[in-house]
Design brief:
Rossmann fold; alpha/beta; six-stranded parallel beta sheet; 11 strands; three-stranded parallel beta sheet; binds NADP nicotinamide-adenine-dinucleotide phosphate; 10 helices; about 290 residues; 2 domains
Length: about 290
């Protein structure tokens, strides 16, 4: 392997250790810990597992967890009433509504009901708009984690040619905006992009979030590029893999993030960071 590894797991542990200290400082100042309300509707096993990992990480960082597991039969009105209660609860500094929600509930309505001041996931249109404007408050966790990963290796973002594969509202678009804000020259690609491989080969920073197992191969990568793989897929052997063909791309890239152990742990760390930052803002510590 020629490329150096961007170890998201190790970086996330450093971030979480710092946040534990910051949580303790919040407790010392206002007599309560940063608090995160987690709301999960239904029985999806993967969602239960995600929420459990997030809660464990929060507890280790001294964040108070207010856990709500609701049956799949919960109505939209009941869910909105709970969110309203959490919006008004002074012990809560962040609210996480785990997606996907059952089909009878409109995710957009629910996410917009979360107070923009407690939007730990950074999905509220107000916070998205602030990012577009270049003055973000809460930033979406996954792209925020990707930016920290690039920053951690010291290659710099300013002036770099960045290509983002994928234009979802939770990863691709906010990531492109965060790169732009840091003065990269950004191209966003999607399923209708023509000659995708040629566009990708121009990238000094190649950020991939499309949800297609091992889609990006070495012929699509510029020699020495920084490649960050957001994808989470199952390969034919059942093992977790990214959107990047790690084996071939790691021979050509300068830096590469693995799956697992790359963006995933950083996404959780950024949820914690958003919660602690929110508590610090409310405590007048920021
Ligand atoms: P999404 O909403 O499904 O969006 C996928 C994007 O990829 C779309 O913009 C789509 O283009 C584009 N795309 C699909 N096939 C393509 C192709 N062949 N060539 C070029 N572009 C293509 O996905 P998402 O929510 O952003 O997630 C992407 C991946 O990241 C998934 O594997 C997801 O599981 C993973 N993920 C991981 C984390 C983490 O914490 N590790 C967090 C979030 C997501 P169109 O817009 O034209 O359809």
């Amino acid at each position: 392997m020629a490329a150096r590894l961007i170890d998201g797991k190790a970086l996330a542990l450093q971030v979480r250790a710092r946040l534990a200290t910051e949580s303790a400082a919040v407790l010392a100042k206002i007599g309560m810990r940063p608090g995160l309300a987690t709301i999960l509707v239904g029985d999806d096993p993967a969602s239960h597992q995600y929420v459990k990992s997030k809660q464990k990480a929060c507890e280790e960082a001294g964040i108070y967890i207010d856990d709500h597991k609701l049956p799949a039969s919960t109505t939209q009105a009941e869910l909105l009433a709970l969110i309203e209660k959490k919006n008004a609860d002074p012990k809560i500094h962040g609210i996480l509504v785990q997606l996907p929600l059952p089909k009878h509930i409109e995710s957009r309505v629910v996410l917009e009901a979360v107070s923009p001041n407690k939007d730990a996931d950074g999905f509220h249109p107000y916070n998205f708009g602030r990012l577009v404007e270049g003055s973000p408050v809460f930033e979406a966790c996954t792209p925020k984690g990707v930016i920290k990963m690039i920053e951690s290796i010291g290659v710099g973002i300013e002036g770099k040619r960045a290509v983002v594969l994928g234009r979802s509202n939770i990863v691709g678009k906010p990531l492109a905006l965060m790169l732009l804000q840091r003065n990269a020259t950004v191209t966003i690609c999607h399923s209708k992009t023509k000659d995708l491989a040629a566009v990708c080969r121009e990238a000094e920073l190649l950020l991939v979030a499309i949800g297609k197992a091992k889609f990006v191969t070495a012929d699509m990568v510029r020699e020495g590029a920084v490649v960050i793989d957001v994808g989470t897929n199952r390969w034919t052997d059942g093992k977790l893999c990214g959107d990047v063909d790690f084996e071939s791309v790691s021979q050509k890239a300068g830096w590469i993030s693995p799956v697992p152990g790359g963006v995933g742990p950083m996404t959780i760390a950024m949820l914690l960071e958003n919660t602690v930052e929110s508590a610090k803002r409310m405590a007048g510590m920021l």
